[in-house]
Amino acid sequence: MNISSNFRKYIVALTMLASVSLVSAQEVSVSKQINQIKRNTQYLYSEATMESESEAMKVAYDMLLEHVHEYVAENNPNVAVSVLLEDIKPKSESMNMMRGNMHRVFVYVKKSDIEGVVRQSTVDPNDRATVKGTESPRAMGDKQQSAPAAEQPQAAQQSAVVPNNAEKSVSVVADKPASQIAPVKHENETAARQTESSPLETTVKSTTRQLTVWEKRAIESFLSCTDFAAVQAKLNRLLAEYKVKRYGTPDDCPEQGDVFWVIMNEGGGVIAVLCPDNGQLADYKTSQYVSLSQYKGKNAIWIQLSK
Amino acid sequence: MKHILMTFLSLWVMLPATMLGQDGVKLEISDGIEVGSVKSSIERNASLLMTAINQAERKCSDVNFQGIDIGNQALQSIGMMWENVHFHIVDSDIVEHCFRVKDSKGATVGYQVRHIAIQMKPLNDSYQGDLTQKICINFNRDGRISGFYIAMDEGLYNRLTQEGKRFDDLDRRMFLLNWVELYRSAYDTKDISFIEKVFTGNDHALIDSIGSNLYFSYLKRVFEKSDYINVKISDVSIVRHGVKPNYYGVALKHEWFTKYCSNGGILFMVWDFTDDNAPCVVASTIQPIRTDEKDLFNLNNIRLR
Predict the structure, then answer these.
(1) Does residue A135 carry a pLDDT above 80?
(2) Does B274 reach chain A within 8 Å, measured CB to CB?
(3) Which residues neighbour B48 within 8 Å (Cβ) at sequence distance 6 or greater?
(4) pLDDT at A69
(5) Which of A4, A8, A21, A173 to mutate to test the interface with B (most CBs of B within 10 A)?
(6) Poorest-confidence range of A145-149, B77-81, B94-98, B137-141?
(7) What is the rounded distance in angstroms from the CA atom of residue B188 to the CA atom of residue B293?
(8) Across A201-210, A248-257, B184-193, which has the greatest mean pLDDT?
(9) How far is B283 from chain A (nearest CA, A)?
(10) CB-based burial label for A177 (10 Å; 0-12, 13-18, 19+)
(11) Residue B96 DSSP SS3
(12) DSSP-derived 3-state class of residue A260
């Protein structure tokens, strides 16, 4: 049977239209799958649309890691935990599709798979403290290094505790001390510290040296922290406001009796703040003289407040 | 017989295409807000708005906002953008996170749904930007639409979110990101008054004020004469002052072009967050794009009170 040329053209046109419909249907199918996963509360997901697939993949995974951190923190409120990207990636899946000339990458991970890769840390203040920064310098970090008055101390701080091994551990604090910042006198700060003499017997209640209003507020803000993340956030804020001049772990404390101590339980909840008083330490809440050895086994950081 | 067969084949091919072209858009929030009346309002208002946009694009008419709970600012923003370029929402079935917008005390002041894909439908050849864009829709605490603009890319959003959590000032960084998106949107909508405030509305002495004023005057003429301004914003950085933490330096590179001319520069601004409820710009400047990095303005160049 001879097929007329018009009929042949018609078939070709229909075939092309069908191909377009098929591609569109496939895209709809991927979108449908993506939406199904988004609706499923068993998954955490993220996506990015960028000019290159590799860029979209990187951004999507960065965002997924943020969601994972939030999920883990919500489900482990009293424990310092961390999750690394290299642990998440093998457990995750991805889907790619084009959006015009951009690459859309969708990544997701099952919540139950995260539990197996959560790393828990324990801290012993008497152990040698090592600190690790998990954050690489930011894109604008170079700019900051030429500006010593800017956010330099925060640039290398870590966002989670990373344990060395099961028994020995790392400190909760960030890596760079604030000593690199040139000290700047706060014009608003008034009244030099006043110290009061106090009896040497530890059983006798004694008063701590006179603290200024801002020092009391800074100390009390630590007392309200219930986990490591809160302590770290508070420290960052006080560093930025230059109320904390420097800080560190027990291992690198220059003079134990000359600094403030923030004592924390296993989960990072602050149980005491110790104030320096003539070379000795006094509990801020009870005003009693104490010794660091009374807090053996607890987490601790020392801080030096600005004058 | 042949005629019936051809008709049947045509319908079989065209029906999916027709279904794909339906105007209806449905938004569903996957997480970030509790189930309740506010969530329902957000989903309903966003769905109605995006459906209205797609209908208007198909009919080549104005967007009909009837029945949509939308504030004046968002309404004007969409209207002004629509005068210059049309677009349609790519997906008919959207599932997205909902982000809370918080103030400095951590109280929720609104909501945001981001990264909704749109396809630009230029009205003429003056549009030369990417045809695929993402939009961000803001809602107030009751779920009313309060903002609508083209969003910055996810990479920038993620970076600023991480910095905000690290430095415990997420609310401020999100405010500044929102402002950068509004600044970019001002080119889409040719909102010259918004841009005017950036360059001429500061109380403090301007850095390079002559350059800023000249730039603004030139831009105003371009807005009047051009159909559409294509703009690209990149290299956005937000730095908090180390000693005066209520001050933030915001730098960005922006390049814009039309069919007949192009320009741009590196914008640097200093924001004052002393009153978190009313952050304001205290200084701004614009420098040529090819300025050496060592000559770029930063927070150290500004004497703050």
Answers:
(1) no
(2) no
(3) B67, B68
(4) 85
(5) A21
(6) A145-149
(7) 29
(8) B184-193
(9) 17
(10) middle
(11) strand
(12) strand
For B207-229, the pLDDT digits (tens) are: 455 566 777 788 888 888 887 88
Show me where the domains of chain A are located. Answer: 181-305
Q: Are A150 and B299 inside 8 Å of each other by CB?
A: yes
Find out whether A104 and A56 touch, Cβ atoms under 8 Å: yes
Mutate to test the interface with A, among B9, B29, B166 (most CBs of A within 10 A): B166
**CATH T-level assignment (fold) for domain B192-301:** Nuclear Transport Factor 2; Chain: A, (3.10.450)
The shortest CB-CB distance from A35 to any of B95, B130, B300 is to B95
Give percent of chain B above pLDDT 70.
88
Buried residues in B148-160 as b, exposed as e (16+ CB within 10 A): bbbbbbbbbbbbb
A184 confidence band (pLDDT: 50, 70, 90): very low
Sheet with strand A260-264: strands edge to edge: A244-248, A299-305, A260-264, A270-277, A280-283, A289-290
Chain-chain contact of B240 with A241 (C-beta, under 8 angstroms): no
The secondary structure of residue B278, as a DSSP letter, is S
CB atoms within 10 A of CB B298: 20
**d(C-alpha A157, C-alpha B287), whole Å:** 32
Beta partners for A305? A244
